[in-house]
Design a protein that fits this description.
Layout (H helix, E strand, L loop, with lengths): L2 H11 L3 H29 L27 H36 L46 H44 L18 H13 L1 H43 L5 H20 L3 E2 L5 E2 L5 H24 L2
Antiparallel strand pairs: 1-2
Helix pairs in contact: 2-3, 7-8
């Protein structure tokens, strides 16, 4: 079918010729399915004997609540199979006949002869003068001059193409403008924060040297260049210190675990040796236990099961003072023992 004729008919009728044919075929298919459904309803509502279904000899057919004979599963399956075959046969007939109908209509009815297309003027084309419009020939993409072999585009098509190009350019410019505005806003916020830090009079402000009068512009520039040059060295030093710091943390954790283990061992040794004895022995054990706890809590010392200091030496005067306190505690216990024979 001629595209010019199709465009002219579409503009005149306000719908494409093919859409009319599609509506006709859809209507026929709807009527076909309604007919098949009516045939299926008729067959299922008819008695089985009317359709030639007879029960085997010696059997009684099933009935519903009203006493009507109902179809068995085999009979129901045979009816459904026949309905499906009828529907397929009708669909094939409709498709074959209406394909020919579509070709006939498009070639002989909904068509304008090609030699008459240029002479047809529609109602909304009246009083329009197209003689003054001189369409420009399209240009080669790789050349700035019009090509001679390419036919000129109609004015409407050329205007539509230019409008589409301008619309795409406008959308791209709008997106670029939005991106630039967001960048400007972000830069303004960053500059505001930097100005506030530079103008701050706080001694702890790391940017206070910028407004310092004691440094010239050259000195400030040299200082900044030196700081930038040292960034790589600082990063390398940090990378070297990280494993050492991790090792130090592991050693400290290990020492804490060992100290906790020694303290638990001492408590186990003392607890394991505790046996019921004479009152005087019980007093000595109590004094030893309390003395150990006092030395560990108030003096910060760690003692093993024998009472020796663990983890380094200690000051002599502190040790003498501790022994003196132990002696005083023993004298106090002996005095209490003499007072209570």
């Amino acid at each position: 079918m001629n595209p010019a004729s199709t465009s002219l008919l579409t503009e005149h009728l306000r719908w494409t010729p093919l859409s009319l044919i599609d509506d006709i075929i859809n209507t026929v298919n709807a009527l076909l399915y309604q007919s098949v459904s009516a045939v299926e309803t008729f067959l299922l509502s008819s008695p089985p004997g009317l359709l030639g279904f007879t029960p085997p000899s010696g059997t009684i057919p099933d009935t519903d609540g009203d006493g009507n004979v109902i179809y068995s599963e085999k009979e129901q399956e045979e009816i459904n199979k026949g309905i499906h075959q009828l529907e397929t046969l009708l669909e094939n007939g409709v498709d074959k006949r209406f394909d020919a109908f579509e070709l006939y209509v498009l070639r002989n009815i909904l068509v304008v002869p090609q030699d008459l297309v240029g002479w047809v003027r529609l109602a909304h084309h009246k009083n329009l003068d197209f003689t003054s419009v001189t369409p420009s020939a399209p240009t080669d993409p790789n050349s700035s001059e019009p090509t001679e072999n390419t036919p000129a585009l109609p004015p409407a098509h050329e205007a539509q193409s230019r409008l589409r190009t301008l619309r795409q350019t406008l959308l791209a410019s709008h997106a670029l403008n939005q991106t630039l505005q967001s960048e400007v806003s972000s830069n303004e916020r960053t500059l505001t924060q930097l100005r506030a830090l530079a103008n701050s009079s706080d001694n702890k402000n790391p940017f206070s040297f910028i407004n310092s009068s004691s440094m010239s512009t050259k000195e400030l520039k040299d200082t900044a260049s030196f700081a930038v040059s040292q960034i790589g060295l600082i990063r390398s030093l940090i990378a070297q210190l990280k494993p050492k710091y991790a090792e130090l943390q592991r050693q400290r954790q290990k020492e804490q675990e060992e100290a906790l283990g020694d303290k638990m061992d001492v408590d186990e040794e003392i607890g394991g040796k505790e046996e019921k004895g004479t009152p005087e022995e019980e007093r000595k054990k109590y004094i030893e236990k309390m003395t150990r706890r006092h030395m560990e809590s108030s003096r910060g010392l760690r003692l093993n099961a024998k009472g020796e200091v663990v983890g380094g030496g200690f000051e002599e005067n502190v040790a003498r003072k501790g022994l003196g306190e132990v002696g005083e505690l023993e004298g106090l216990v002996e005095g209490l023992g003499e007072g209570n024979p």
